[in-house]
Amino acid sequence: MKTHNPIRAIVDGLKIVPNKDKPMIALSIGDPTTFGNLPPADEVLQAMKQTIDDGNFNGYGPAVGFIEARQAVAEYSQHQGEVEAKDVILCSGCSCSLDLCIAALGGAGQNILIPKPGFSIYGTLAEGFGIECRSYNLIPEQNWEIDLHHLESLIDEKTAAIILTNPSNPCGSVFSKQHILDIIAVAERHFVPIIADEIYEHFVFPGNEYHSISSLSKNVPVLSCGGLTKRFLVPGWRLGWIIIHDRHGAFNEVRNGLQNLSSRILGSNSLVQGALPAILKNTPQKFYDELVEILQNHANIAYQLLKEIPGLKPIMPAGAMYMMVNIDIQSFPEYEDELEFVQDLVHEQSVFCLPGKCFNIENYMRIVLTVPREMIIEACTRIREFCEKHYKPGDVEGLSQQFVSCGR
User: Fold this and answer.
1) Other C-beta atoms within 10 Å of 201: how many?
2) I need a surface site. Which of 73, 265, 349, 384 has the fewest CB within 10 A?
3) Is the separation of the CB atoms in 322 and 384 below 8 Å?
4) 61 in Cβ contact with 264 (< 8 Å)
5) What is the topology classification, in CATH, of domain 6-30+286-404?
């Protein structure tokens, strides 16, 4: 069996034993409902209740989704460019959307390009089809922009697609308009389509501007993946979608392929589809704005607290629900890597952050910003206590002096 989940494999390999005297704070879980502080809007729940009461959506629907639900997504997604119901395919969550896109564009012996650091699901899905994943670098010093030269160097005649995550999990970055245009230019030169993972497209902090990739692409075809999961705070409802942004008929066969692949799961949840038009139409802007405000406030709190901690360097996100924190592992000489660091952080302080290796990068850890405010503060306080205990910069400086004195 080729498929495996790197995050699960790495986490299962850690010895996660919390301090029994301190309640566990899991800054590792990308589920915004975990702590109960971020409930969905009343309008969302009411739409679902009404659909259940009506009793009209208890059976199977079309594999690609009910036309009314697809039309609702098309109207909701006009910021991506001109979208019609025929361009929308409903899926069982955004991960299913990505699965279908990768399967439709790639096959055994081909490769796709994925971000580093990036969400591990891309590799999990691709390897099941015998597709090679090639990781292009993101540059932390440039707010996690793509190293375009590295990206382009990975492309060959077997490259089936470039996956772009904007806004980013795990980085929380939001690409500028010019950077997206530069990415599109690379794809256009090599005739490579783009899979746009845009599940966090509306999670953009004030002061930053979001541009959907498809809205800027004139010649490169794009498959945009989104869903209800994050913005509407109902990840368990498993409703995602693919929006096909064809260019010059390049995706005629891909469109047919996606429709055929949809029949493998016989369509997404029919009840959620029934409620979808009301959810997308009636959820008030105030709900969206307040959610983004909470996440930005949590990001500001975490950044201000973590940047003062010796040996850590947080990178302020511009959106999404996450923050990446660099660990100067040499200043913690008793730890070989960030895996040992986060493992001991749990053991001493009962704070669990996902190690960077879960996202294919070393000496970083990812924290989630959806936990309650007081929990963010408490977690950062404990992290500070842990780092101050184990931080030993003198050892590194002494080692450097030894090398200098030896003439190395």
Assistant:
1) 25
2) 265
3) no
4) no
5) Aspartate Aminotransferase, domain 1 (3.90.1150)
